[in-house]
Structure formats: C-alpha cells, structure tokens
Design a protein that fits this description.
Blueprint (H helix, E strand, L loop, with lengths): L4 E7 L3 H12 L4 E4 L30 H8 L7 H8 L7 H6 L4 H19 L5 E2 L14 E2 L2 H15 L3 E3 L3 E7 L5 E8 L2 E11 L8 H8 L7 E2 L10 H8 L4 E2 L5 E6 L17 E3 L14 H13 L5 E6 L20 E3 L2 H8 L3 H14 L34 E13 L2 E2 L6 E3 L5 E7 L16 H18 L5
Length: 484
C-alpha cells in the first residue's frame, strides 16, 4: 500500500482525534494522525485541561445531562412550529429540519448512552478516574476526573495508538479536503515544510475551534474579540481550518459562531488556565471602580460563565475582584485560585485603589454602598446561604458580607476563550451533515469542531464529547471502508 493511502486520516491530536485513531486502529484500520504541533506539544488544549466529566459515576452521566445539552443547543427565538419540528426524533423529521437545529436530540441521546462505555474503554488503557477536589468551592453537579487530567488521557491514547501502529505526522497542517465527483471525501491535503501532500482515506476532523485565529474571531465575534485570549497555549494551534474546509464543501454549520466558552483568568499570568474562581466572596468592579453584576447568583460551577461574560463586556474587558480578610477563612479557599500571581494587597481600600489604578473615591463609594446594603445573617461560604444585599443594584444574591476586615486583596480578571462554539453538525455516527441534513460520505468530526452550544456552555461536557464521538467516528469509518 502506498505511503499516502490510509483507511482513516485524522486531523488533530487531542483526545477527540486520538480516540478516533485508536478506535479505527483497533478495528484493523491503517490510520494516520496529522498534528500541527511538534510531538512534545501534541494534544492541543486537551493536554492542559483538568478534563472535568459531567458524570455521577463511571457509567452514568448526571441526571440533567440531556436536558441541559438540549437547552443549550436550541436555536434562540425559534418559531414555535419549527421548535416542535426540531424536537421530534431524527427518523421522523425532514432533512432540512435536522440541519436547522444545533444539536439533534438523538445525537444527545447517543452521547449520553456512550459516555459510560467510553470511560470503560479508557480504563482498559490504564486511565484511572475519581471524584477529586475541583477548583469549584461550591458546585451543583458532580465532576468525574481522570487522574492526571487531560494530559493523562492524551498520553494513554497516544501510547495505545502507537502500539497499534498509527502513523503520526507532526508539524503538519491540514489545508483542504479532497472530494471526488460524487461528493465523497477521499482524503486530506496537508502541508509540511512548505510542501503539500494528499493523504488518501476517509477523514475525521478533530482539529478544534478557531480560538487561535484572530481573523475568524473578529469576523464572528466582532472587534472586542481582541480582549480575549486562549485559555492555554494549546488554543493557539486551533485556527479553524477544519471548520472552513468542511463549510467549503457544503457542511452544515452548528452552534453559536458568535460565542465561546468563557472562564475567568488572571491576565498577569502566563501559565495554562490561571483561573480565579474566588470572586463570589467579594465584589467585582470595573475600571471606573463600580460594580456591574451579581457576583454570586448561584453555585460558582453553574454561574461563572455568565459572570465572566459580564466582565468581558466592561471597558477593556477587565475587572477586579475586591476581597477582605474573611475569604482566607474559607476552607481550602486556594482551590479557587489557579493563578500563580499573588493578590494585590493593602491595609485600606484607598491604598488598594491606588495599587490597582482605580479611581480612589469611586471605589471607596462602591465599597461603602455595598457594605451598607449587607444585612445580618449566617455566612455559609461552602453552600448557597441566601445572604443577599438589600436595596442595592445590582444585588448580590449570596455570601453578601461587608468588605471591612484588612488586609484587602484584589485580583484582576479577564475572560479567557476556552473554545469557540461554532462548528459543524454531525449525526449519531459522528458523520458530518450537509445543508440538507444528509451525511457527507467519508467525512467525520469530533471534539470542539462539532457545533453544540448556544449562549452558554454545558459544563464538563466538552472533553467527554470529544472522547465519545471520536471513538464513534473511528469505528464507523472502518465499518464503512468498503462502501466507497
């Protein structure tokens, strides 16, 4: 067999691409993985994530899993008749209706059904899972984690792929899809060291979103996207070519192209995911020294994204959380601080304002108004305590206690772009759909490139989505290799 002919060509070496490669290789396929990064940085964003999984056990997703995904995958303001049509099972719907929805209910159902078997599959490769402490001091849903995080998943899958003889082409970029006269995808045109080559075979696009592409960010999200930065250096490799090349051959778009998964991070830090989740215990102020949002509308795991989006809306996309000494009495409070930078500290609010460059009088007035709106009650930092401000706009719904005990601390916060929401649509077999809702022969997608979310993210589903549909894509591609 020629060196450029394979049963499956996989673009991307994160957990989605590696799952596809291993699954296909286990079925006896000849597989190649194309990765833009060098070998030592393989894994994309998967390598740097904690890899939270929205599961209540190793075999079961959470009770709200399908409902939450369906709600976040619904088209905003859809006409009632269309919404009813989109909610019907795929087998009963016209193809155009499938193409108009973001996420097919049957795809969500398959996602939920295959999560447990996928975890069992990974355990067979030596990956261990546990309900470990998270950075969320309060949470509404359990999070299963792989011991060792995303890096452990990448290394286990890559080792299995190498054991099965999967070929890897590092420092190689995917350029475009090769398509025959019947519309079947027959391979992937790649470029390495300035030279192009066509790798023949069915294709799985698992090369992420476009958080590393300033042009696409500006086009879809507008000029304020300059205030965003990828959550980790792996995001810089995600430049959206997989989405573009699929759309160019008629793939249906899915997900919210104008939005992204937001996470609060410290802009002073250069480490991966320098998150700051301590803000519910203080107040958030913008560059004018004013509050602008409810810092604690619910548990931090369920509300941090909406709060972070409000931070992104502020002037220059930045805010500061102002805390007093009370937050240091919270058990394990440092779990909510992933940043490697120390707090900015002062024994007075005026001194803190000067240290962080905010208007001193404005910050003093904001703190005084907030303190006056706090009422007596029992402060319960590790559960929703309903201790809310009275007569303050915007209100603070929980953990509202005066900022009065020095030393006072502040952390700057900006919104990181964990991943973009816009991508392509797939069916239950991870086949990419065209604008009419029909599968494009020979083309699959898995991971962030699959457009799933609108408005906000269903927490702890992204890594799991990549693992599940990567595994499905590899197996299905091999099962259909003789259909060409």
């Amino acid at each position: 067999m020629a060196d450029d002919v394979f049963d499956l060509v996989v673009a991307g070496c994160g957990v989605a691409g590696l799952s596809a490669a291993v699954s296909a290789a286990e079925a006896g396929g000849r597989v190649v993985v194309v990765e833009r990064a060098p070998r030592e940085e393989r894994g994309g964003q998967s390598r740097y994530t904690e890899a939270y999984l929205r599961m209540k056990s190793e075999s079961e997703v959470t009770d709200d899993f399908e409902t939450h995904l369906a709600e976040n995958g619904a088209l905003p303001y859809a006409e009632p008749a269309l919404a009813m049509e989109l909610a019907r099972p795929a087998r009963d719907r016209a193809g155009h209706a499938r193409a108009l929805s973001s996420v097919d209910p049957d795809v969500v159902g398959e996602f939920a059904a295959q999560a447990g078997p996928t975890i069992a599959w990974l355990k067979g490769m030596g990956v261990r899972f546990d309900f470990l402490p998270t950075q969320f001091l309060t949470k509404s849903q359990p999070r299963l984690l792989p011991v060792g995080g995303g890096a452990a998943l990448v290394e286990a899958l890559a080792a299995r792929a190498e054991q099965l003889g999967v070929a890897f082409r590092y420092e190689t970029s995917a350029q475009r899809l090769a398509v025959d006269e019947d519309g079947r995808v027959t391979g992937l045109v790649v470029r390495r060291a300035g030279r192009a080559q066509t790798l023949r075979g069915a294709v799985v696009l698992a090369c992420g979103g476009f958080e590393g592409n300033p042009e696409m960010l500006s086009r879809y999200m507008g000029p304020r996207s300059v205030f965003l930065r990828p959550i980790c250096k792996g995001g810089h490799f995600n430049r959206g070519e997989g989405i573009q090349m699929a759309l160019e051959i008629g793939a249906a778009g899915g997900g919210d192209f104008g939005s992204y998964h937001a996470e609060p991070v410290d802009p002073r830090s250069s480490i991966a995911e320098p998150s700051v989740f301590i803000f519910p215990y203080g107040i958030l102020v913008n560059k004018d020294g004013r509050r602008f949002t409810d810092e604690a509308p619910g548990t931090v795991d369920a509300t941090y994204e909406s709060v972070t989006r409000r931070i992104f809306e502020q002037r220059d996309g930045i805010a500061w959380v102002v805390l007093d000494a009370r937050h240091q009495a919270i058990p394990n409070y440092r779990l909510g601080l992933r940043t490697d930078q120390p707090p900015i500290a002062s024994d007075s609010i005026g001194g803190l304002a000067r240290a962080i460059g905010l208007p001193e009088a404005a910050l003093a007035r904001t703190v005084a108004e907030y303190n006056a709106a706090c009422v007596a009650g029992e402060w319960k930092p590790l559960q929703l305590d309903g201790l809310a401000t009275q007569g303050l706009d915007p209100r603070k719904s929980n953990w509202a206690v005066p900022i009065a005990e020095p030393p006072f601390h502040a952390y700057p916060i900006i919104s990181a772009n964990v991943f973009t929401f816009g991508g392509v649509k797939i069916d239950q077999q991870a086949r990419v759909l065209d604008g009419g809702g029909d599968p494009i022969p020979g083309l699959y997608a898995a991971g962030e490139i699959v457009g799933t979310y609108y408005g906000t993210y269903t927490g702890a589903t992204s890594v799991l989505k990549g693992l599940v549909f990567g595994r499905i894509a590899g197996a299905d591609a091999l099962a259909r290799r003789n259909d060409a």
